[in-house]
Amino acid sequence: MHLEFVDVAAESDVPAPRGLRVLVDGRAVALFRHGDAIVAFEDACPHAGAPLSEGVCKDGEVVCSWHGFRFDAATGACRLYAGAPPATPRVVKVEGGRVFVAK
């Protein structure tokens, strides 16, 4: 499968621990620093639709600013309770100091 990527930000624009909201083909995506990597998720918490980009990434989890739902920064899984909906991850690559997110 061939993925098309969109240049969305300079790597230096992604703050830590806060998120950065960017657009990919008109859809909001939240970028976060996770260790040495940049990760991306659809910018809507699956719990109540809050913008994940307003949250933070700490201790390996993206934390929603509205109700504190926590999502694994690597997978989007939510371990809050059995059956909790995951955050939707997006494929990211960083090249030449730029962040690219798959369409």
Kindly describe this structure.
- The chain has no helices and 10 strands.
- It has strands at residues 5-10, 20-24, 27-34, 37-42, 56-58, 61-63, 70-72, 89-90, 92-95, 98-102.
- A hairpin with a 2-residue loop joins strand 5 and strand 6.
- With 103 residues, it is mainly β.
- The mean pLDDT is 96.
- It has a single domain (5-102), classed as Rieske Iron-sulfur Protein (3-layer Sandwich), CATH 2.102.10.10.
- It has a 4-stranded antiparallel beta sheet, with no helix packed on it.
- The radius of gyration is 13 Å and the shape is globular.
Layout: helices, strands, pairs:
Blueprint: E1 5-10, E2 20-24, E3 27-34, E4 37-42, E5 56-58, E6 61-63, E7 70-72, E8 89-90, E9 92-95, E10 98-102
Antiparallel strand pairs: 1-10, 2-3, 3-4, 4-8, 5-6, 6-7, 9-10
Keywords:
44% strand, 103 residues, Rieske Iron-sulfur Protein, four-stranded antiparallel sheet, 0% helix, three-stranded antiparallel sheet, mainly beta, globular
Using the 3D structure, state the CATH architecture.
3-layer Sandwich
Radius of gyration: 13 Å
Coarse morphology: globular
**SS-based class:** mainly beta
Helix content: under 10%
Low-confidence stretches: none
Oligomer: single chain
User: In the CATH hierarchy, what is the class?
Assistant: Mainly Beta
Distance between the termini: 13 Å
Order of helices and strands: EEEEEEEEEE
Identify the strand order in the major beta sheet.
2-3-4-8
CATH topology: Rieske Iron-sulfur Protein
Strand runs, count: 10
What is the number of helices? 0
Largest sheet at a glance?
Answer: 4 strands, antiparallel
The CATH superfamily turns out to be Rieske [2Fe-2S] iron-sulphur domain
What's the number of domains?
1
- Quote the beta fraction: 35-45%
